[in-house]
Amino acid sequence: MEVLSSLSSFINLHQSEARPIVLVTSGGTSVPLEKNMVRSLENFSTGSRGSCSAEHFLAKGYAVVFLYRPGSLLPFLRMISSEYGGLGEITPRLASTLAASFGEEAGGSFDLPSFVDPVKEFERANNKTMFLLDYKSVTQYLELFEEICKLLDACGRQAMVYAASAVSDFYIPEEKMAQHKIQSGEAGNGVNEDGCLNLKLYPVPKKLGSIGEWCSKAFVVSFKLETDTNILQRKSLRAIDKYKVNAVVGNILSTRKKTCMLYTGEDRDGLTLKTSGGKILEEEIIAVLVDMHFQHISEGGGAEVFR
Ligand code: PMT
């Protein structure tokens, strides 16, 4: 895949400059019900967590590989997507057009629209310290996730995996999927005689446990989203015990923008992180994780990293 060869050059460049590098996954996966897809099951995620986090990793001197779902929020451009709803989805191509229209050549001689700065910030990072890749279906996500992790192996302990995407736990494997649009009112493809559709969804292979094989020295952070506070700690610790991730960010759907818990093997009670003093939550999360990552790097006696 061409994009992976460009990504490999991006990773090698930053690795040679001793820059820490993070894979940020963002947005929710889609599970198609048909090969010629008309319907799908979606996992909830606006991409706010991933895109805000990417900005703060960049601010800390990291190179960022951003694996996102098209239509979900992008770093910097997230600030204008909602404000300028009329623009629709702000794609990297649209961002370039906006930057060209309102950027350097305007020379500040007229009132620049308020959305120019985020666009400039995006342009400044894109393809230099930030590399974008997109996925739609859960299958595409899992394939890209694996390939990127394998490329990150070259960075040893300098790499971090920050898996904020909401990945479906259930899907329909390709060989079990209907070819064409599932018809209502006609028995077949799961539609039975009384007109009800019975879907059989299969478990998606969990990939967290394999990260250790793909990039064995990377610092791995996974996420846990729950709606029931009573099970958040247990489910978060499970990822540490079962998949050996270094840290888990646990959050509750309704409060996810204001507070979250950070669990590690050493701190099983968890550290409460909250928005404070005008800082968004991601700034708090990334500050703590970067310290933990630098500790992880120094424990390996690794090369000095740029900070
Ligand atoms: O985007 P926002 O609107 O800001 O919302 C952010 C968020 C709530 C989506 C985010 O903070 C979050 O919690 N993301 C993880 C959601 C979740 O619980 O996903 P999960 O239970 O499907 O997966 C748990 C972890 O395993 C995740 O790190 C996921 O990336 C990973 N996973 C899941 C399934 C799978 N097959 N392989 C995986 O690696």
UniProtKB/TrEMBL annotation:
This is DNA/pantothenate metabolism flavoprotein C-terminal domain-containing protein. It holds the Pfam family DFP. Residues 141-258 form the DNA/pantothenate metabolism flavoprotein C-terminal domain. Belongs to the PPC synthetase family. One of its GO terms (biological process) is coenzyme A biosynthetic process. Keywords: Membrane, Transmembrane, Transmembrane helix. One of its GO terms (molecular function) is catalytic activity. It comes from the Eukaryota.
